[in-house]
Design goal:
heterodimer; A: 68 residues; mainly beta; Ubiquitin-like (UB roll); five-stranded mixed beta sheet; two-stranded antiparallel ribbon; 7 strands; 41% strand; globular; B: 338 residues; alpha/beta; Rossmann fold; six-stranded mixed beta sheet; 12 helices
């Protein structure tokens, strides 16, 4: 079975897979997130926009925008 | 990508608005300096103050409480449970766990116990939930601060909040709101405590990064009542500009603050002339057109303060609902018997 990057968006309760390797900046562009509105994490690590995510790795895209 | 400060460790965060990249340790130093600078520049408070931090369970307010404690401030947390099913329980749990981990106990006000849960209060008063929520929370900020001898109330509003709010106020020329918009709202007598926003120099991304790197467990879901809040539109507009022109948000807000009091005073005068401005009591405590609420004793322009009027309507509506339910139940049981 082909291994891919697992992308989780906790606030929207969405999980999907995309083929890797790919840099965070491109993943955000593909998933329609503006970099300043999210943090991207992998386990206990915070990822910068140039971080290359490999197949088999899981990342979380967490929105930082609070309203009200 | 390396940390631009220590030039050794791998960067964990890139801040395009500061043209900087930081490893976790250097980011915490950056963060502390921004908070210190924010407090110093606007003379928000000193170590002699007793600080009441208003915490919601979200990232900004918990980060603020954490940072103020680390900076050595005498800071206690106030959590107001809004009575929103599910969301309020989850956010309260986060606050309690955060406080316990630091040997603290949050002061908790439950709006259900007070008779003004936000969904019911909004319905009874025919107002938007966010508007009712703001007014009720401000009432308790002042009341708890006065009861606990706190000298200042601190909230977790950040640069995104304040710049978004400024954009909304300018776009609609809300003169009275512009007149009042500042990280420092001075005290006015005993009823209205000084209010400060020490995170005004930090973006939401920076507070979220701090929370994540510090392992602060905050509630990531948004308040279900704020889904259509207009503030989100202004924030989004600014985030589009910020993406293309990093630093614009800070330039917009600090530019406004640098213009200083004359601009805010001019807006206040214009608002007063058009009859939309409600004067705040003077610094010496002398009410400027205000007196004390005949029910709770809070400063107000009317005979009864906004909070007490809202509460009365909410309680009345709850009684009507209960009566209706009883009547319906009696009718249903009557039909069954027949």
């Amino acid at each position: 079975m082909m291994r891919m990057i697992c992308v989780r968006i906790p606030q929207k309760k969405r999980i999907f897979e995309i083929p890797g390797p790919r840099v965070v900046k491109d993943i955000l562009a593909e998933t329609g997130h503006r970099p300043a509105t999210v943090i991207v994490t992998m386990g206990k690590q915070l990822l910068t926009r140039d971080h290359r995510v490999a197949d088999g790795e899981t990342i979380d895209i967490i929105s930082v925008v609070s309203g009200g | 990508m390396k940390c631009k400060r220590c030039r050794k460790a791998t960067a964990a965060i890139e801040l395009r608005s500061h043209n900087a990249t930081f490893c976790p340790d250097c980011f915490f130093i950056f963060f502390r300096r921004q908070v210190e600078e924010g407090i110093r520049k606007q003379r928000l408070m000193s170590r002699a103050d007793r600080v009441l931090v208003c915490v919601s369970g979200g990232k900004d307010s918990l980060v603020l409480w954490d940072e103020l404690l680390e900076m050595g401030y005498d800071a206690e947390g106030l959590y107001i449970s809004l009575g929103i099913p599910g969301y309020s329980d989850r956010s309260k749990e986060k606050v309690i766990a955060f406080a316990e981990a630091r040997g603290k106990k949050a002061i908790i006000v439950d709006l259900c116990d007070e008779g003004v849960p936000i969904p019911e209060a909004a319905r009874a008063n025919k107002k938007h939930e966010c508007s009712v929520c703001g007014a009720i929370k401000r009432h308790f900020f002042n009341r708890v601060a006065a009861e606990g001898n706190f000298t200042v109330v601190a909230t977790g509003h950040n640069l995104d909040d304040e710049s978004g709010r400024l954009l909304g106020n300018v776009l609609h020329w809300q003169k009275s709101h512009i007149a009042r918009q500042h990280p420092l709202l001075p005290a006015a007598g005993e009823g209205l405590v000084r209010k400060v926003k020490p995170l005004w120099r930090l973006s939401e991304q920076e507070t979220a990064s701090y929370a994540f790197l510090k392992g602060i467990d905050f509630v990531i879901e948004e308040c279900p009542m704020s889904e259509h809040a207009t503030s989100l539109i202004f924030k989004e507009a600014l985030s589009i500009i910020e993406d293309r022109m990093p630093g614009s948000r800070m330039a917009f807000y600090t530019g406004f603050l640098d213009l200083g009091n004359p601009v805010r005073e001019a807006m206040g005068r214009a608002a007063a002339e058009s009859g939309e401005f409600e004067p705040r009591p003077k610094d010496d405590g002398t009410p400027a057109g205000t007196h004390l609420c005949d029910r709770c004793g809070a400063p107000t322009l009317a005979q009864t303060c906004g909070y007490c009027r809202m509460k009365a309507k909410t309680v009345e509506r709850a009684a009507q609902d209960a009566e209706k339910k009883t009547t319906e139940a009696q009718k249903a049981s009557g039909k069954e018997t027949a």
